[in-house]
Automatic annotation (TrEMBL), chain A:
Recorded superkingdom: Bacteria
Main location as per UniProt: membrane
Listed name of the protein: Leucine/isoleucine/valine transporter permease subunit
Membrane topology note: Multi-pass membrane protein
Entry keyword Hydrolase: no
GO MF term list: branched-chain amino acid transmembrane transporter activity
From TrEMBL, chain B:
Family: Belongs to the leucine-binding protein family.
CDD domains reported in the protein's UniProt record: PBP1_ABC_LIVBP-like
Lineage: Bacteria, Bacillati, Candidatus Sysuimicrobiota, Candidatus Sysuimicrobiia, Candidatus Sysuimicrobiales
Keyword vocabulary terms for this entry: Signal
Identification of the protein by name: Branched-chain amino acid ABC transporter substrate-binding protein
Signal peptide as annotated in the record: 1-27
From TrEMBL, chain C:
Pfam families for the chain: BPD_transp_2 (PF02653)
Major subcellular site: membrane
A single GO BP: L-isoleucine import across plasma membrane
GO terms for MF: L-isoleucine transmembrane transporter activity; L-leucine transmembrane transporter activity; L-phenylalanine transmembrane transporter activity; L-valine transmembrane transporter activity
Keywords from the named record: Amino-acid transport, Cell inner membrane, Cell membrane, Membrane, Transmembrane, Transmembrane helix, Transport
Membrane topology reported for the UniProt record: Multi-pass membrane protein
GO CC annotation terms, alphabetical: plasma membrane
InterPro entries (alphabetical): ABC_transp_permease (IPR001851), BCAA_transport_permease (IPR052157)
Transmembrane annotation, as ranges: 20-45, 57-80, 92-112, 118-139, 151-174, 194-220, 249-271, 277-296, 308-329, 335-354
Stated family: Belongs to the binding-protein-dependent transport system permease family. LivHM subfamily.
Name of the protein: Branched-chain amino acid ABC transporter permease
Subcellular location: Cell membrane
């Protein structure tokens, strides 16, 4: 509890602060254009649009925050406080409307347009102003009341609401999955033309709330039951689970449909790259911001060796080219690692970033156009064929990606537990000490670059056939950044983390394509929030988790063991 | 022990995966629905529901202004048209990122939505190459407002591209007009080109250079920059060493503005003629280039009131009112036309049943689009040929006499001088 | 510990230490050197470019380098203290330049712009600095401060997130088109300095950069706050024990770095005029490169790195690549810049002036 909240003035200050903060957030959403852009988007058709849902979330959040801060006070005080904070949010939003209607803000802020003000005042002109304040006050009170409810009641309600909200938000995708047969029936049950039907929302709410109640009741006993089984039975259980997972993967593309399969292929490609970069950054502690280079090398190798177009070097089958592409990327990795061997830490970041840009510029350049195609790219890459079956679309390619990811993950796991893996970790923790212990740091580092590059090369090889063409514009620095971000978000050094990370940072943005203009805005915000809530990543390694928890008390002195990668620079 | 089991598991998984991979869905068969039979498929729009049109354009990321500009053109077309055959129009869309993988993902998402009648896109040629076949496999015909790469509508483009048309100008057409104007009207002997590494600019610069040489001119140098470059003086100084009479830079507004301003500051280029293409044909370019734009040439579709009446100027007024800013790039009008020819094709092939539901045959729609002839659009008179080029081949050359964006009124300012 | 290791290394004689790696590195250096020499020779021998043209190239390089240097300052100062790459710095630069555009536009419409150029410039500068600084402080508070004790890469990812967020927030607020600054009549045309014609805007940028750089250097070296900054950079723990308010110093560092970025934004706008929501990204990366080139954490290093980078980009393509017969050499200017960066780092692994810092940190 904040010390300031103890005095009477402090109490008011905290209400005002909270309300102003959330109000500013709501105004920001309005001015950045998000509110207007999602105003036609119905969460529950005819009842709640996404725009109002977002706006009211601000009031709700303010209320909850005040109520949380005042834990220990009387319930009525907390609710009144929350309502006041909510009212403040409303005042802030309506202030924008009043100012905007009298002064033309649009010279500077292009979204401050009359339609926005209409939305912010429920389409009733100035008459809507008190209405919005009232609504926000209500939202604040509800938000403040939420923490007061007993958990057995609160949890199912929140689960139900979230379910309805998420399905409403992703209704586009859900509807895509439900286009034929029995599924089409489900679609017409839940949705109307514009969005979730009211009865559909209620159904979903009941469903999720029910599940939540069941989970609360049976989760602990089920866990106890599984633990209590004899080892043999438990193994069988594990096999059954594994079998179920494999079966799920097998039928997934046919259930989920074309688009989800495509997204999963992309997730798979990023997982492959992430596994490679994880080797460099997570295992060996070599920061690399130019990882896209190897991806490009793999893709271009496949392109040039298999294309039917005029740039062809050879007309090999894809299956023969994959090993070649892997080896070429491996060599490229070693070759690129050589000049930067002595460079450490953050210097490495920019040197590698430069390498990625160099490769992109070279494949784009007019100078190499006769051989690499310049900006017009390499076209006409045939799809791989296996015993007469063509991998022609995402629903087939997904198997290729899954198999490749599984193989590469397996290799990575074996490498991690090998002598080489331990050497990498030694180098990561302290290069000088590792050298003193007799580790050949040069070879070890070069192998990290080489093998990491090879993994990305495999990814590039699949990428090339997925597109059937290769263009230089696909290989910009944002890909390197994204791959780095996904292994950190997943949990550095953790293999399942890579997959979780790419699901979160590649899969989710793809699924949110509909809100395309705001995709990167949300992406940025998610990165910031994620790093504060789970700095160790979504699926961290045991070591990282432990270290981070020790590290929370220890000071951040440079060179402390908490610093996982690139902790040091300089010699001696 | 554990190792071995893992291996067995892996082998089993691989085998199983491959076995299931063998299951390949057949393509959508010919369908009959209501009053319509079509060899590719039929879209049914229930009474009261909207006709769905989708865009796949780059509306996020660094190239966003290209796609947002086009999308606004479509949105204005939807506002203008309001309904087709009495059905409201619903516009949905995807960001395609201006790269191949974005194009594939966007196209795949559209392809899996059976409600979509037709699509508009892509923004960049690199998206269309892998993306357009995916859409056509799902029976969705797409019209691009801004792909200019010649190969997309080449005679040998293949059956994959049967569902692809464009209202943008093929580079070959525009590059040829620019070269002819430079050689025949300006009587220029030596020219240099600059492109920015985009397929659009590279294609145009090459088409210009080829035609210019064919007409007996000399190309002193062909340079390239990055679209994010800001300091063009070094590259311009290099160009100046070849002493050209004209510099042709068919790039986009931002980089084009830098080139225009800085050319005047480079020794040896003060009196060189500057020429750009439709990528910079916008009032915003006047802001970007400042006073240096006075006296420079542009090739662009003939948008004068003499050719089109007030269609284009009226469009610009609507745009300003709706979005509070000037047009962002060059392809809003092409997008408007793309949407309009789609609506008109739907009106030709859509059939209603007794209950008032609408049926649209996909192959019939495609054929109707390819049969578009003499459609009076905002970019000229639109007639599609059999490989999908629809743009009016009338390319005009303009000269700028002012640098005030408020005076922008194609035909008068910049003034049309050719043909 | 480290000292004994170094001693052990020295004791091995050079022949024993000569490995395949060293041979490769030497071959790499020689190859780059040979390409540079051959290219240069052939370019100069062809005589296609007259003497004064080369001077122009140098001036272009120096003015572009000055802008890089000013942005690099913020990178370097934050890095010196927090050992953290502030990836969003380029976008903070953009915020300043973009927001100040509206001030410039308003002044222009009011007719003050060209009647009172100095006053206008001061107002624009103030707006830019205020905008940049407030965004930077907000970012520090929200995205960096909670992570001060987190592993090293965590703040980097947070910074990347902040970079995206700022870019697209500005895009949403100000629009996805671009704006162009009006032109100062006073700064049109050229000045003649020692017989070299320099564009006035470029001269202003170079001089302003030098002044700002000098002021900043004095601030860090001579004032009490500057001393505290250096102390924090040296050892955060001990500095705190000495009664220095570490949080405050960090905030000041961010503010000063951002103010420099804001000023850089205005100077950039003087030369290039256009502002756009994505304009910070590449200059940001370049400035970071400049900071590393000069030795990250070192203020004169940032200046030197920026100038070198500007020169490589401006002179390199024509001097080296043109002679090698490579078409459209300016497309590859970043290839030159980054190759030179790697070359410098091979010879001096911690940048041109970065030695002191690197030695201290190990």
């Amino acid at each position: 509890m904040e010390p300031a909240a103890k005095t009477a003035r402090g109490v008011w200050r905290s209400v005002v602060q909270t309300g102003a903060l959330w109000g500013a957030g709501a105004i920001f959403l309005a001015l950045v254009g998000l509110v207007e852009a999602v105003s036609h988007r119905q969460i529950v058709a005819g009842v709640l649009s996404l725009a109002y849902a977002l706006l009211l979330l601000a009031g709700l959040g303010a209320g909850t925050q005040v109520s949380r801060r005042w834990a220990g006070r009387a319930a009525w005080q907390r609710i009144v406080g929350g309502a006041l904070a909510g009212a403040l949010v409303g005042v802030a939003v309506e202030l924008l409307v009043v100012i905007g209607r009298s002064v033309n803000l649009r010279i500077m802020l292009i979204n401050a347009s009359p339609p926005l003000y209409e939305i912010l005042s429920f389409g009733r002109g100035l008459g809507g102003v008190p209405l919005m304040m009232l609504a926000q006050t209500g939202a604040g009170a509800i938000g403040a009341a939420a923490p007061l409810l007993p958990p057995w009641f609160r949890r199912p309600v929140i689960a139900g609401l979230s379910m309805a909200f998420v399905i409403g938000l992703f209704q586009d995708l859900v509807q895509l999955m439900l286009q034929s047969g029995v599924r089409a029936g489900l679609r017409s049950l839940l949705f109307t033309g514009d969005g979730l039907a009211l009865h559909g929302a209620v159904l979903l709410f009941v469903f999720a709330a029910g599940l939540s109640v069941l989970r609360a009741r049976y989760r602990a006993p089920a866990g106890r039951w599984a633990v209590g089984l004899p080892p043999q039975r438990r193994r069988v259980l594990r096999w059954i689970t594994m079998g179920a997972v494999v079966a799920a993967i097998l039928i997934l593309p046919w259930v989920a449909g074309l688009f989800i399969s495509q997204v999963l292929v992309l997730v798979g490609l990023y997982t492959l790259m992430g596994l490679g970069l994880n080797l460099e950054v997570g295992f060996a502690g070599l920061l690399d911001l130019g990882f896209v280079a190897f991806f490009a090398i793999g893709a271009y190798t496949v392109g040039l060796l298999t294309t039917t177009g005029p740039l062809a070097v050879a007309h090999l089958a894809w299956w023969t080219v994959v090993p070649i592409a892997t080896v070429v990327s491996l060599i490229a990795g070693v070759f690129f690692g050589l000049p930067i061997l002595r460079i450490r830490g953050d210097y490495l970041a920019i040197a590698t970033l430069g390498f990625g840009e160099i490769i992109r510029l070279l494949v784009l350049s007019d100078f190499l156009r006769p051989w690499l195609g310049g900006s017009q790219g390499v076209l006409g890459i045939p799809r791989p064929v296996l015993v007469g079956l063509e991998f022609r679309g995402p629903q087939q390619l997904i198997y290729l990606t899954v198999v490749a990811s599984a193989l590469v993950a397996f290799v990575a796991a074996r490498l991690r537990d090998s002598r080489l893996g331990r050497a990498w970790m030694a180098v990561r923790e302290d290069e000088d000490v590792a050298e003193a212990l007799g580790i050949n740091t040069v070879n070890v580092k070069l192998l990290a670059y080489g093998i990491g590059g090879a993994f990305a090369g495999v990814s590039g090889a699949i990428f090339a056939v997925m597109l059937g063409s290769v263009f230089p514009h696909s290989f910009n620095v944002l890909i390197s950044i994204n791959v780095l971000a996904l292994i950190i978000v997943g949990g550095m050094g953790s293999l399942p983390g890579v997959m979780v990370g790419s699901l979160a940072l590649v899969g989710l943005p793809e699924l949110l394509r509909e809100f395309s203009d705001f995709r990167f805005l949300v992406y940025g915000a998610v990165l910031i929030v994620m790093m504060q809530l789970r700095p160790e990543g979504l699926w961290p390694t045991a070591v990282a988790r432990r270290e981070l928890h020790d590290g929370a008390q220890a000071p951040a002195v440079p060179g402390h063991a908490v610093e996982l990668a690139g902790a040091k620079e300089g010699d001696g | 022990m554990r190792m071995k089991r893992l291996q067995i598991l892996m082998t089993l998984t691989v085998a199983l995966l491959l076995a299931v991979g063998a299951y390949f869905v057949p393509a959508a068969p010919a369908a009959t629905m209501g009053p319509v039979t079509d060899s590719v498929g039929v879209v049914k729009v229930n009474k009261g529901q909207p006709v769905t049109i989708a865009y796949w354009l780059v509306v996020a990321g660094p190239d966003a202004s290209l796609g947002v500009d086009s999308r606004r053109g479509i949105e204005i077309a939807v506002d203008d048209k309001k309904t087709v055959l009495g059905f409201p129009i619903k516009l949905i869309g995807e960001d395609s990122g201006c790269n191949a993988e974005g194009g594939v993902t966007a196209a795949t998402k559209l392809a899996s939505n059976q409600d979509i009648v037709a699509a508009i896109g892509s923004s960049c040629s690199s998206e269309a190459v892998p993306g357009a076949p995916i859409l056509w496999k799902a029976g969705i015909v797409t019209v691009s407002p801004s792909n200019t790469a010649p190969k997309l509508t080449a005679a040998d483009r293949g059956a994959d591209f049967d569902g692809y048309l464009r209202t943008a100008h093929n580079d070959l057409v525009q590059g040829r007009v620019a070269a002819e104007f430079a050689r025949k009207s300006l009587k220029v002997g030596k020219a240099a080109t600059i492109h920015d590494g985009s397929p659009y600019a590279e294609g145009l610069a090459n088409a210009f250079a080829d035609n210019f040489k064919k007409l007996g001119g000399t190309i002193t140098s062909q340079e390239a920059i990055a679209p994010t470059d800001t300091d063009m003086r070094p590259v311009l100084t290099k160009i100046a060493a070849g002493k050209p009479d004209l510099v042709y830079y068919p790039i986009f507004i931002a980089a084009g503005g830098f080139v225009t301003r800085q050319a005047k500051e480079v020794a040896g280029l003060q009196n060189v003629k500057l020429m750009s293409a439709d990528g910079t044909f916008s009032p915003d370019f006047y802001k970007a280039g400042g006073d240096a734009v006075v006296g420079m040439y542009h090739t662009s579709p003939d948008l004068t009131e003499a050719a089109l009446g007030t269609r284009y100027t009226a469009f610009l007024a609507k745009h300003k009112k709706k979005y509070g800013e000037n047009v962002l790039s060059a392809f809003h009008a092409h997008a408007y036309d793309a949407a309009m020819i789609i609506f008109s094709a739907i009106e030709k092939v859509g059939k209603k049943d007794g209950a008032g539901n609408l049926y649209i045959g996909r192959k019939a729609l495609r054929d109707a689009l390819f049969a578009t002839k003499g459609f009076r659009g905002v970019t000229g008179t639109i007639t599609c040929n059999k490989s999908g080029d629809c743009a009016d081949p009338k390319i005009a050359v303009y000269i700028s006499n002012s640098s005030d964006p408020a005076k922008w009124n194609p035909g008068e300012e910049p003034k049309k001088i050719y043909p | 510990m480290a000292a004994t290791l170094v001693a052990a290394r020295i004791q091995r004689n050079w022949l024993q230490r000569l490995s395949v790696i060293d041979i490769f590195l030497w071959a790499f250096r020689l190859a780059v050197l040979a390409a540079v020499v051959v290219g240069t020779f052939r370019t100069l021998y062809s005589g296609r470019y007259a003497g004064e043209v080369w001077l122009d190239f140098v001036v272009f390089g120096v003015s572009q380098g000055s802008v890089y240097a000013l942005i690099a300052l913020g990178y370097t100062m934050v890095y010196g203290i927090l050992r953290m790459i502030n990836f969003a710095h380029g976008d903070i630069f953009m915020c300043g330049a973009y927001t100040a555009y509206y001030a410039a536009g308003a002044l222009y419409r009011a007719g003050v712009f060209n009647r009172q150029p100095l006053l206008s410039l001061a107002i624009i500068l103030a707006v830019a600095v205020t905008a940049s600084t407030s965004v930077a402080l907000l970012v520090e508070r929200v995205a960096y401060r909670p992570l001060r004790r987190a592993p090293r890469l965590v703040p980097l990812i947070s910074a990347i997130g902040a970079s995206f967020f700022i870019e697209y927030a500005v895009r949403g607020l100000y629009g996805s088109g671009f704006q162009a600054y009006p032109e100062f009549e006073v700064f049109k045309g050229k000045w003649n300095v020692f017989g070299i014609g320099i564009l006035r805007t470029q001269a202003v940028v170079i001089v302003a950069t030098l002044i700002l750089m000098g002021l900043l250097y004095l601030f860090v070296m001579r004032t009490k706050t500057g001393t505290a900054m250096r102390a924090v950079s040296e050892d955060m723990e001990v500095a705190a024990l000495m009664g220095i308010n570490v949080d405050r110093i960090i905030v000041i560092t961010f503010a000063v770095g951002a103010a420099a970025a804001g000023a850089a934004g205005v100077l950039y706008a003087l030369v290039f005029k256009q502002v756009h929501f994505f304009m910070g990204f590449y200059p940001g990366i370049k400035a970071f490169t400049a900071a590393v080139l000069g030795g990250i954490g070192n203020i004169p290093g940032a200046m030197l790195g920026g100038l070198f980078l500007g020169l490589f980009e401006s002179v390199g393509p024509i001097l080296v690549l043109d002679g090698l017969g490579i078409v459209a050499p300016y497309q590859l200017k970043d290839v030159i810049a980054f190759t030179m960066l790697v070359m410098v780092l091979i010879f001096r692994p911690s940048g041109i002036l970065g030695e002191r810092l690197a030695g201290k940190k190990a």
